[in-house]
Write the structure tokens for this entry.
Amino acid sequence: MQLVVISGKGGTGKTTVTASFAYLNKESIKVDCDVDASNLNIVLQGEDIESSQFIGAKMAKINKGKCIKCGRCASVCRFDAIKDNQIIELKCEGCAACKVVCPVDAISLDDEVTGETIITKTDAGILSRAEMIVGAEGSGKLVTEVRKNAMKYQKDNELVILDGTPGIGCAVMASITGCDVALIVIEPTQSGLNDFKRVLSLIDHFGVTPLACINKYDINEEMTLEIEKYCEDESVEVLGRIPFDPMVQIAVNELKPIICYEKSIAGEAIKNIWEKINKKYKEEIV
Ligand code: SF4
Ligand code: SF4
């Protein structure tokens, strides 16, 4: 079974929940799909045991020795990435149109490294993650690679827990597709509700079973009730409410999952949510 923890935007407590789930099922395979700002490894710590460069794009290169400065390449480039017979790297999308029209075969398309994929061995099991190069394109492809890497470590149909990418872009689609269940972490604010609605429609589109939990529910109980009512109307099961807990900040500072703190009320709520997932899917969870 693949369980993705997701939210409409960053900073809703998604990683706090995922890191705790990782500790509650150490046999599971963990995947950090937030390739732009991976941070699950900071909480889970551990040792990197594998890494490789990820070729996620192509870039045109002009051989100045061959170029006869005819200008055909610039006129076909739809991305305005060629000026004065030179490639503007930040604009090139690697579409190869320029290469096709060049009369003297002066253009080549070179591989572009867009990130690094990493396997980290943590106290809570294997974590697959990546670090994308700042400004690089194609985070969706990198997420797909990170998920593929994780599956190499799945020996006995172990649960896969994914820390999903926030938002609704193509990296999010890459983190949701093929998952069985998505736990959506919602913030009790108007924008939290709007983000939730957007992410829910995406989850529906991919045929993934949605579940919800409300983080810091007590900072706005009226909005919490509104979100719960919306979930009821949309037949989305709310597995729990996580209270605001100053101990979460202490856990973040001390780089530990919140469930490691016995007196944490947020940790207790997350454990209860985990128990419900466990009970609900006990057949599928190894
Ligand atoms: S590969 Fe495509 S985007 Fe890049 S310079 Fe050539 S035509 Fe433009
Ligand atoms: S099409 Fe080829 S020869 Fe013409 S300007 Fe571009 S690189 Fe140079």
Remarks:
- The pocket of iron/sulfur cluster (ligand 1) is lined by residues 60, 77, 79, 81-82, 87, 92-98 (CB under 6 Å).
- The mean pLDDT is 92.
- The CA atoms of residues 10 and 166 lie 5 Å apart.
- The first helix runs from residue 14 to 24.
